[in-house]
Specification:
324 residues, alpha/beta, Arc Repressor Mutant, subunit A, four-stranded mixed β-sheet, three-stranded parallel β-sheet, 14 helices, 48% helix, globular
Length: 324
Amino acid sequence: MLRVIFTEADLDQVRVATAPDPLWEIANSLDRLQTRRGRWAYAPWYRAASETLTDSVLRKMVGSLLVPLFPRAAYFPDFLTPPASLDGLDAGIDAVLATPAERVTSELKTLALVHQAPSWAPRLAAGDLRTELEVGLRTYHQKLIQPHHQLIEKELAADRATRARALKRGGVDRLLSGFQPLMRWRSPVLEVRYPVNRTIRLEGRGLQLIPSYFCWHNAVTLADADLSPVLIYPVLRELATPKAGEPTTAALLGKTRAAVLRATAAGLTAGEIAAQVGIGAPTTSHHLTVLRDSGLITTQRAEKTVLHVLTPLGAALLRQRPRS
């Protein structure tokens, strides 16, 4: 759990970002690429990203340059997500490239302690690879994030509207109270779901709240508590966890239909689902129609491909546990 401790002065300096932060979206989307957790919620994007990454040059750049800097680990360097990124990708990248060599060196050494710093890290600190990093960040954003700008902005705009309404109706107290179950506000402490136990004292610096489309399940913050405090949180709504002992998915739907539902967690075509489950096309189509009419899946088009994707209701059903 993360405990963020406020003073009276901090309550007057709580801000919600009014635009997506492109570098945090890069960081969080790279996290999505490195795990299957929450993949159902990003199935159309993940499918499109996988197709984009069939380009060998792009795949090599992501795998050899960006993933080592943004590993799915307890730490990645703070200089990669500067506050200036809220002013846009250009401003963010300029700030990254302007980071003093001493700070880059220090943060890459920290990365080496908790994960594994790339062998070329000293060259980045020395400035030799700054151009490659700039190209990598711009290309990744252009190829894997920008094509989904409308969807991302739609999700973030809805979240911002909710936060603005809470702030208008009840001030900062109501705003901070509206993040449950991700966060719990017990003035003067904001308790945040977080992978490790940690405490941040704001001490009059305020707090910047940044909604993120690609942030999943837990909030994220900077590793260095001396930097300007930020809290990146997921816009996707939390699913209720079914109680143990409830009927299994197969018991509710039947074995075959349950298998079809599970297959849609990866965002597949009807043909791919048929092959995975081992049933014919007409049977697959029938099961997909029933699941869609029941609100458990939805059909989305990704370019020329029609994908069948879980809805939050379908995902909640899949998370049900069998009787013990």
